[in-house]
Design a protein that fits this description.
- The chain has one domain.
- It is mainly alpha-helical and about 70 residues long.
- The longest helix has 24 residues, at about 15-40.
- About 65% of the residues lie in helices and about 0% in strands.
- The radius of gyration is 15 Å and the shape is elongated.
- Helix 1 (about 15-40) packs antiparallel against helix 2 (about 45-65).
- It contains two helices and no strands.
- It has helices at about 15-40, 45-65.
Length: about 70
């Protein structure tokens, strides 16, 4: 069984248009979570939002450098 910290290799194919849309959606979600983290007063929820931000930043980084074979 894998945990959230263990990388799992998967392979799939997406178009450049799909990659661009994923980046746009991830960027928007990251922006929304930044606002959410500043507005929350609950430490547990803030920690969860900060973990989510880290995950979103990592996904953005990976998709931004993804090579598309056409």
């Amino acid at each position: 069984m894998t945990t959230a910290t263990e990388p799992v290799a998967h392979s799939f194919t997406i178009s450049e248009e799909e990659r661009a849309e994923l980046i746009r959606l991830l960027d928007r979600a990251l922006g929304e979570s930044r606002v959410e983290s500043h507005r929350t007063h609950t430490p547990e929820f803030r920690d969860r939002v900060l973990r989510e931000q880290s995950l979103l930043r990592g996904l953005l980084e990976r998709f931004s450098h993804l090579r598309i074979d056409e």
